[in-house]
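Journal club prep — side note

Before the paper discussion, L.F. wants everyone to see what a predicted structure for a comparable chain looks like in C-alpha cell form. Sequence:
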Amino acid sequence: MLKRNALWTAALLVAAAAPAFAQGIVIPDDPNLPPLSLINHRVRVEIDRQGATTTVEQIFLNNTDRQLEAQYVFPIPRGAAMSRFTMLMNGKEKAGEIVEKNQARQIYNSIVNRSRDPGLLEYLGGELFRANIFPIAPRGSQTITLRFDQVLTAQDALVSYVYPVRSAQRHGPVVQGEFSFEATIKSAVPIMSVYSPSHGIAVARASDREVRVTFTDRRATLEKDFQLFYGLSEKEIGLNLVTYRPDPKQPGYFMLLLAPKSTLQTDRIVERDLVFVVDTSGSMAGAKIQQARNALKYLVGKLNDGDRFNIVSFSSFAETWQKGLVGAKERREDASRFAETLIAQGGTDIAGAFDAAVSCLGNDPARPSYIIFMTDGKPTMGETTDARKILAKVTAAKNRPNGESIRLFTWGVGYDVDTHLLDDMANQGGGVSEYVRPEEDIATKVAAFANKASQPVLTSLDLKLIGDKVQLANMLPRALPDLYAGGQLVLLGRYTGEGDVAFELTGRVNGRVEKFTYENKFAATEAKGGFIELLWAQRRIGFLLDQIRLNGESKELVDDVIRLSKEYGIQTPYTSNLILEDGTPLGVPTEMPRRKDVSGGAAFRPETAKVLDGVKEKNSPVLKPAPEPPKSEPEARAARLEAESFAKKFNDKDGKAAVDVSRRLRELKEAEKAGGAVQAFRKAAGTRFFDYDGVWVDERFEAGATLTMVKFGSEAYFRLLEKAPTLVDALKLGTSVVYVTADGKALAVADSGEEKLSDVRIDALFTAKK
C-alpha cells in the first residue's frame, strides 16, 4: 500500500518540464521557459514568544544551455503576517520588494497560466515578495536565501505555524536532493504538546521552555503543508483543543492534545510494579533467545529507582525469578545476570505464565501494575484449546484491589503467534500489542517502547466535559492510556453544540488523586483543521475493524465500516471487493478509476463517461501535463496482492498476513498523521473528485447536466475565481476539472473552451434550476 506520509517541498526531476511550486519560484524572463527546478530546500525557523523568523535556503537549477535573467517570487499566504523580508543570492544581499495584492494577483495569474500548474491559486488575494535575479549560468545552480518574520497566532494557548507548499499534481513532484525542516521554539510559558498532523517530526527538549523540532527527507513527494502546533501551559499537565466544523448544521470534529511538563518533580514520577514475562520455549532457540536476553536487560536498565519488579520465564511451565517483587535500585545488576542464564527449550504455557505474573504483583494502593509479555508461539501446554479461558484470566486480574488496573502489553515474536489472542489480551489488559517480524531485532523494538513508557506521570486517566452546551461522541481511544514524561496523548472525536466549556481531567500519582480543570471553546463553525476529520475516520475504522476481528461481525459495525471506507477512501476488508474497471481495488492508486461502484451509487454511467471523453478531447496532447509514469507490473501486482491479502487474511490468527493485519489495524487505531490512508479520490469544495484519465470529475456530475466549458488560464477562468472563490479548492486539483456548480449545471475546465464570460453568465452558473 502506498504510504502518503511524505513531505512536499521542492523539485522536479532535472529533465522535467513541469514546475514544482515551493514557497519560492524562479521565473525566467523568457516567456517560453518554465520556472526553474528546485533541487534542494532547507527551512530553519526560530520562534521566541510567538515571534517567528523563518530562513529558507533554496537551490535552483538552470536546465538550459544559456545564461538566464529571471524573477524570484515568494507567495505570501493571506492572513500570514510576514514582514522584514531580506534576501541573499549566493551569499550577497539582494534587494527585493513587496508587491501589493492587486498587482500580485496579476503576477499569480500569469504564472499559473504559463506554468499550467494551478497550485498558486490559493495565494490569490495575498501579497508577493519579488526580486530580480541575474545572471544564472548555463546548466548552473542558483542558491537563494530568504528570511522573513511573522507573529504566530494562538487559540486557547495552542500556537500554530504553517510552512505552506501546494502541488496541483496528483502525487506531487519528487525532491531530487534533500528537504529539511528545523524549528527551535522558545517560550516564557512552559511548552507542553508539540505536534504535527502532517509529518513525522522528531522532538528534542532542552527544557520546559525550549524545544527543537526536526524533519528530514530525501526524494520526498510534495503533497502537504508543513503544519506544526505547540501548546503552552503553566499547569503540570497541559490540554489544548482544536476543532473543525465546516458545516454548522452537522456535528463537528475535535482533537485534544494532552502533555505533561518535560521536567517534573521527582514525586511526580509514578512508582510501578512490573513483571517481565519471557518465552523460553524451544522455538526461541538461536538468535531469538539472545535478542530476548538483551531486551530483558534493557527493560530492567530502564526501571526507575522507586520501581519494583520480577521476571517470569516460561516454556512447558512457568518459573519466577524471585518469590515476590524486588526493588529496582537494589536488584538491577542481579536481574541482568539472570537474563544471561535463560535457555530455550520445551513447550509454550501462556496461561500458566500469565497466572505466575499476576501472582507476583502486589496490592499497594499507590502503585500501578504492568505486565510485559513476550512470546514467539501459540499455547502448546496448559490451556491450549479455548482462548476465552485465557482472556477470562486477564479480565479477572485486570481490576486490582488497590483500585489500579493492570496494564498488559503483549509482544509477538515472529509469525507463528496467535495474533487474535495477543491482541485481545492487550485490549482486555488496557495495553497494546506489538509484533516483531523475523528480520527485526526484539531488543530494538522493546527499547523503543521502554524509552517511551519509562516514566509515567499520571495513571488511570478520566476526562469529563462539564456542562451541557456540548456533547461529545466517538472519542478515540475509548480508554485513555497512562501519560508518560516526554510523551503526549492525541484524542479525537465528534461533537454537537457549541460554546465555552470546561474539561476535568483526573488521574493518580503515587496513590493520590489529582484533578485538573481546563477552559476551552467548541466552535459553531470552523473551516480550518480539515486533517482532524481524516485522522478521526482512520481511527474510527481501525477501532471498528478491531472489534469485528476479535468479537465477530455485526451488521451495524460492518455497515459503519463500509460507509466510512467509501466516504474517505480508506481500504478495508469490506471494500477491497469494490473493484474499479481496470481491476484495481478501492484504495489502491490508479490512473483512471472508471468505477463500477465506489461511492454508493454515484458511479460514472456509460452516458456520463461519453460526455467526459468529450472533455478529455478538449485537452491538447501538446499542452497537457505529462502523465505520471505508470506503475510497473511488479508494483501493480504487489498493490493488488496486498489489498487481497488484507481482505482474505483478515480473520487469520497466525502467519505473516495475520501479523501484517494486526499491525495495520494498530496504525489506524493510533493514527496521528493525516494522509496515512490511501485514497482513490480527492475531497475539495465540499465534494469528492475522481481522476478520470487526467480529468478530476465531481462525483455528482451527470450526463444530462448543462455543461459550460472554460479554457484553462483564460480571462473567464480567472474571473470565475474572483466571482466564486469557493472554486479555488476545486480548480487547484489540476488543469482539467469538472465541477457541479448547481443543480443541473456544471463547469468544465479544459485546454479549450470559452475564454470570456460575463458576470451575468457566471451568476447563472451557480443558480439552481427552478
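L.F.'s comment for the group: The first strand starts at residue 25 and ends at 28. Keep this in mind when we get to the figures.
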